[in-house]
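Re: the request from the purification team.
They wanted to know what the chain is likely to look like in 3D before they choose a buffer screen. I agreed to run a prediction and write the result into the notebook, where they can find it.
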Amino acid sequence: MSQAKRRYPIGAELIGENETHFRVWAPKARKLDVVLEDAAEVKPKFCSLTAESNGYFSGPAGAGPGTRYRFRVNGAENFYPDPASRFQPDGPHGSSCIVDPTKFRWSDAQWPGLKIKGQIIYEMHLGTFTKEGTWRAAAEQLSELARIGITVIEMMPVAEFPGRFGWGYDGVNLFAPSHLYGTPDDLRAFVDRAHWLGLGVILDVVYNHFGPDGNYLGVFSDDYLIRGKGHEWGDVVNFDGPNSGPVREFFITNGRYWIEEFHFDGFRFDATHAIRDQSEEYIIGALGHAAREAAGPRSIILIAENDLQESKMTQPRNAGGDDQDGMWNDDFHHSAIVALTGNNVGYYSDYSGHDCTPFAGTVDAVAVSRTGIRHVQSFSILRRCRRCICARRDLQRSGSIARAVPITLGRANIAKLTCAGCSRGFLQMQARFRRARKESTALRPAHRPS
């Protein structure tokens, strides 16, 4: 790596008052320039980066916060945004922008972080939560969420995506909070405000694919993705193939970045069953380990969405697991949709709608692991393999299940973390929610500045 003092191995980082160091993985390039685009000048300024021995290019340039830039590969006419851009003011097709993360003044130094037990999670989409659809507007409503008993906000994906509206699951600039919701500092202010109110904030992250529109990774390398071996969302990410080292570094760095620079309290990892990785250490386990290290003494929670409900996800690292605090269990949601609509195709093909469990196949295997988890398996028509349909844990952290059960409470859509088995049913979930709501004041840390 370049000898410049950097926090992360990729992206644009300020190293002086008006000097920025750039580093990008571009093994397809013979030559790579950073193109500085100053609105006051007619012509852009080109600064050549130095080739390293491992496909990276790096070097300094005279540019400060707010400067817009792109990369030019092999002297071509077209310029491209930084794969690790911290901000895309005009969206994924526009220029990247240099950001100074140190100028924001945090007030949450005493925030202890989160433990998973007893949390009540509100799933929030920034674009629809308020009329304005911005972090600033959403921050003004956080006190109401705290008042009704919410303890954690799960923010749906915010990585930059094309268009004027999206649910966030086709992000292409994974380090850049969407410009549609405001600036990176607006996001920091949202998290800071939430912590002041005693609310945790976890981020929904999508590491199983990139969106197709605005994705320029192929300009820099052919090895970010494995072509022709994709799933319904596109080509899979190359976590274990040739030249996968820098790809893994990219994603692990992304996890550290959200925890360190935005003070997120953890992650909800989207669709981990669609991540293909046969490495010695599964990428989600590696990401989680790096995120916990980045958080330091602050406790974070990690939740995996795993359609197959593999117990390995929640087993500790020393037992060969991925050390997740819980798994997002969609069985109740899917059963409810089938019961209400009669539609049981696609995602819902394993559900009858008569109860909270999948109906496809017979329950044909029950096993108890050393961590105290009870596994009941059936055959999934959709996935064409066995899947765990009911997992219950003892009071240890390993093996916890995060069940996404919508409970109407005013405008709130609540997801309650619980270890209840699938057959426990909705009424017991409601009772647990009511008890947790009464205890929410005691659960919320008192750390507000005087």
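For the purification team: The chain has two domains: 11-97, 120-443.
Please add any questions underneath this entry.
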